[in-house]
């Protein structure tokens, strides 16, 4: 069975991408420690903090987050972030397979501006992520954050 075969994964992905939906993140976790199959573990509308609260120290997971970004007071854009999570207590075999599995996840969660790999919740700082999104976005006319 494929890593991302569950139809709920595509549905959750489409929901996060839908501007009319309040859902702004989803988390994919492995069905169990032995299977290389993902399931939708949770979704929410509480932004990065909501997603971070669901991450486990003993698990690997993938997150997908919709974030609103503004380069100046007149321009508001929606950007998407792909998170590859590998908690500090994740089993060695799961950790070893993660980079290969990430490529398969990217075939389903295709549209994102930046990709973040993290193993500690402290690595997921909203300001840092916004700065990375601005850098990835090209031109930046906001004088307050223009010095990267």
From TrEMBL:
Keyword Cytoplasm: yes
Family in the record: Belongs to the actin-binding proteins ADF family. Coactosin subfamily.
Residue ranges annotated for the ADF-H domain, each copy included: 1-134
Regions crossing the membrane: none
One Pfam match: Cofilin_ADF
Subcellular location: Cytoplasm, Cytoskeleton
Entries under InterPro entries matching the protein: ADF-H (IPR002108), ADF-H/Gelsolin-like_dom_sf (IPR029006)
Xref: PANTHER family: ADF-H DOMAIN-CONTAINING PROTEIN, CORTACTIN AND DREBRIN
Name of this protein: ADF-H domain-containing protein
Example GO BP: regulation of actin filament polymerization
Primary subcellular site in the record, as a coarse category: cytoplasm
Keywords assigned: Actin-binding, Cytoplasm, Cytoskeleton
A single Gene Ontology CC term: cortical actin cytoskeleton
GO molecular function, one term: actin filament binding
């Amino acid at each position: 069975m494929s890593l991302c075969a569950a139809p709920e994964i595509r549905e959750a992905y489409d929901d996060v991408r839908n501007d009319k939906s309040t859902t702004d993140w989803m988390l994919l976790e492995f069905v169990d420690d032995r299977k290389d199959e993902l399931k939708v573990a949770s979704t929410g509308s509480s932004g990065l903090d909501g997603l971070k609260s669901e991450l486990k120290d003993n698990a690997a997971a993938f997150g997908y987050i919709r974030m609103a970004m503004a380069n100046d007071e007149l321009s508001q854009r929606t950007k998407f972030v792909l998170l590859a999570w590998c908690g500090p207590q994740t089993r060695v075999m799961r950790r070893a397979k993660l980079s290969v599995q990430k490529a398969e996840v990217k075939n389903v969660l295709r549209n994102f501006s930046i990709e973040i790999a993290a193993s500690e919740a402290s690595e997921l700082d909203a300001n840092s992520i916004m700065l990375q999104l601005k850098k990835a976005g090209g031109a930046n006319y906001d004088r307050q954050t223009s010095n990267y």
